[in-house]
Amino acid sequence: MTRVHHPRSLEEATALVAQLDEAIVYGGGTAIQILLKQGLISAPDYVDLLHVPGLSELTHVGERVRIGAMVRLREVERDPHVRRALPLAAETYGHVANPRVRNTASAGGNIAHGDYRLDPPAALMALDAVVEIASTHGVREVSIREFFTDFQQTAVQHDELVTAILVPRPAVGTVGAFTKMRSLSQNDWPCASAAVLMVPEDDFVDVRIGLGAVAPTTVYVAFDLTSDMNARQAVDVAIEIADSVMEPLPDVRGSANYKARMGRVAVEESIRRCLEELDRD
Ligand SMILES: Cc1cc2nc3c(=O)[nH]c(=O)nc-3n(C[C@H](O)[C@H](O)[C@H](O)COP(=O)(O)OP(=O)(O)OC[C@H]3O[C@@H](n4cnc5c(N)ncnc54)[C@H](O)[C@@H]3O)c2cc1C
């Protein structure tokens, strides 16, 4: 018999996942429903987070935007404050699948899913976001850059829940761009993606790059753009360091070589868009 639990507090939710050995946490269910239909997962207990207070809220706490785990992807994409404070996040969440999936999928479920092709983690890595994780032992924070530990693996333990994603507001003058390369259809998963954030510092620009779909996990690299580098040199450096972390997995969306080539195109496109906005072309 399958039991679906609807906890009404975070304490109740964390107690349930601590007690129930094989429970599946239910966010928006978009990934779970497909895996269930494919017979790849099954569980006697589901813990639905929909009614846990606070998890569906998108708020601003000091210099950070707090995206509750049950906030829908569509809300991150469309929220006017996110669009102003974190345009790279709004842009990237808007690239996930189609409006139907984005209206249902949750921000916490998205990262907890741990798929290497997900779009949001590339932008969250460039933005230096932090994941808030709760259990009966308390709350801990993990950098999104350390959150994806291996293929389909994350830092979330069986008795833990993702409760929020905390994103620092970038400094004034920061620019960003997300490029998604698709090989099958417009609404499909990427065969490669690149989120770039350029943060102006005193005498250089901090260039941060998150890469999706080109390694067993989302990966992150960074470099300093100095005033003597032109656009071509910036693109060359970005591609060189991106190449050093790309290990694409071949599948229906392309061979490893094809995905690496698309990864380079995505990096170049995002770098050039940022440079144009910085007026450095
Ligand atoms: C047709 C289709 C196309 C897609 N295309 C894309 C795409 O182009 N780009 C992209 O990025 N994604 C894509 N996706 C994936 C989509 O982003 C994920 O399915 C979705 O984000 C998962 O969120 P969810 O809330 O529905 O998670 P769920 O299905 O509810 O859960 C996913 C996993 O996370 C766990 N989980 C959920 N919430 C929590 C929590 N708060 N704490 C701990 N664990 C939790 C669940 O137990 C499960 O293991 C696509 C999905 C579909 C169905």
Automatic annotation (TrEMBL):
InterPro entries: CO_DH_flav_C, CO_DH_flav_C_dom_sf, Diverse_Substr_Oxidored, FAD-bd_PCMH, FAD-bd_PCMH-like_sf, FAD-bd_PCMH_sub1, FAD-bd_PCMH_sub2, Mopterin_DH_FAD-bd. The lineage of its organism: Bacteria, Bacillati, Actinomycetota, Actinomycetes, Mycobacteriales. Keywords: FAD, Flavoprotein, Oxidoreductase. This is FAD binding domain-containing protein. It comes from Nocardia bovistercoris. Transmembrane segments: none annotated. Gene3D superfamilies: 3.30.465.10, CO dehydrogenase flavoprotein, C-terminal domain, Uridine Diphospho-n-acetylenolpyruvylglucosamine Reductase, domain 2. PANTHER family: XANTHINE DEHYDROGENASE SUBUNIT C-RELATED (PTHR42659). GO terms for molecular function: FAD binding; oxidoreductase activity. Residues 1-172 form the FAD-binding PCMH-type domain.
